[in-house]
Amino acid sequence: MTLDFATLDALRTRHPAWTLLRSDHAALVASFLHRTFVASNVRVMAAADLAEALEDELYALRQQLGDGSFPKPARDYLNDWAASDKSWLRKFYQPGTDEPQFDLTPGTEKAIAWLGQLAERSFVGTESRLLTLFELLKQMSEGTESDPAKRIAELHRKRDEIDAEIAQVVAGDVPLLDDAAVKDRFQQFMQLARELLTDFREVESNFRQLDRRVRERIALWEGSKGALLQEIMGERDAIGDSDQGRSFRAFWDFLMSSRRQEELTELLERVLSLSPVADLRPDARTRRVHYDWLEAGEHTQRTVALLSQQLRRFLDDQAWLENRRIMDILHGIESKALALRQAPPPGEVMAIAEPAASIDLAMERPLHAPAFKSVIADIALQEDDDDVDPSALYEQIVIDKARLVRHIRQTLQARGQITLRELIEGQALQQGLAELVAYLQLGSEAFKTVVDESVIEPIAWQAVTRDGSALRRQARLPRILFVR
């Protein structure tokens, strides 16, 4: 992009990041959205929950700055931030729900990330960046070398360097990184880790734009259905086969490897235990940054799958034949909407009438059907001779699900996600296996969970036998993450 006057002037008036920085409420918007979405790695939030959090923020600011500051309700601010002239938030409806959802836009996240870089840093390292650049150039040069002789010579050179390093260590000379080098590399790692989380929203936004361009071609198509299918079938997989799609798929395959996940966990534990890194006071979420990558990547995967499914449904043959007249009408509406998108006229473009009341006539209701009554025969009951122990009726197990729900919610208030094993370690199972099954039921009904089948976690508890002795029980389950 060339930074000439016309380009920069257009960005100043249209780009969400620039309009956010120019806003009078930039401090409120950036601080609230950073804490709500970026710091806790939340991808989607319901309008009610987001409005409640913003209302608390506004109440605290009014207590501090006066009642006249920020006079509008929280929902009005959210709708204003999601309007087309700002686009700081993306407001949408998920399939099957009528409650609006909110998510950050890539431009807003770029502005927040830039604001985070304005603070002065006590330590600025450049060595790790130079080494990273040098390593990238080597990978590109070696990865595109087609001469086998040169490739073999390079591999021999690397082997000689490794042999020399092994001999040096065997001789007792073990080179170690000093504190400055460790801090330099850790800061570089944290910057790349944050940028990777930021890139997910931009990749997801690019996928939506790609899907939108394909739909525009369908809306503006003038030929027959067969010609349209022949034209569009070659691009039905364009979402996944684009450059970003292939790059994201390669990243996802790399991260989903159980061996890579275990290696990342071990490396993070070891690095965070180093004293130079501890002096930097890293964020507590750094220890679980790879799980944040997994959560963000899974959300992007679901978005791509949903777009592909909607595109196939958009081209469904049966819907085309049955609703040809409707498609023609929608074609005219979409064509006019696309023409108005670049230069919308002033004032109200169109109005939608209020929904009409649903009226059920009296004759439409079914007639009364008497309930079936069971007939009990007048038969004298005979007493059984078997000796039954009635104490079994008083040994039934009742799980207090309300207590489990409170425990999960209190834990998720301080953390963005937690495993089932960590929940049980924080509050031991009181009813054994029955309480463990209740946790699984709550994870599928009342909370959002992510199952990582590549990692098996043991969950242990103490069971009491009939004679009163304690017995240790254990269950092995895939890792289950409760997500806020």
Strands in their spatial order, largest beta sheet: 1-3-2
- Mean pLDDT metric: 77
Radius of gyration: 30 Å
* Helix percent band: 55-70%
- Note the beta-strand portion: 5-15%
Helix and strand pattern: HHHEHHEEHHHHHHHHHHHHHEHHEE
**Major beta sheet, specifics?**
3 strands, antiparallel
Number of strands: 6
The secondary-structure class comes to mainly alpha
Which word captures the global form? globular
Which stretches are low in confidence, meaning pLDDT under 50 for 5 or more residues running?
none
What count of helical segments does DSSP give?
A: 20
Question: Looking at the chains present, what oligomeric state does this protein adopt?
Answer: single chain
Distance between the termini: 39 Å
Task: Sum up the structure in keywords.
484 residues, mainly alpha, 3-stranded antiparallel β-sheet, 6 strands
Structure description:
With 484 residues, the protein is mainly α. 58% of the residues lie in helices and 9% in strands. It has 20 helices and six strands. It has helices at residues 5-14, 16-22, 26-38, 47-65, 74-81, 106-116, 127-143, 148-170, 179-219, 225-232, 238-241, 243-255, 258-272, 275-279, 289-314, 317-322, 324-342, 401-414, 420-426, 433-445; strands at 45-46, 89-92, 101-104, 417-419, 448-464, 470-483. A three-stranded antiparallel β-sheet has the order 1-3-2. The protein is globular, with a radius of gyration of 30 Å.
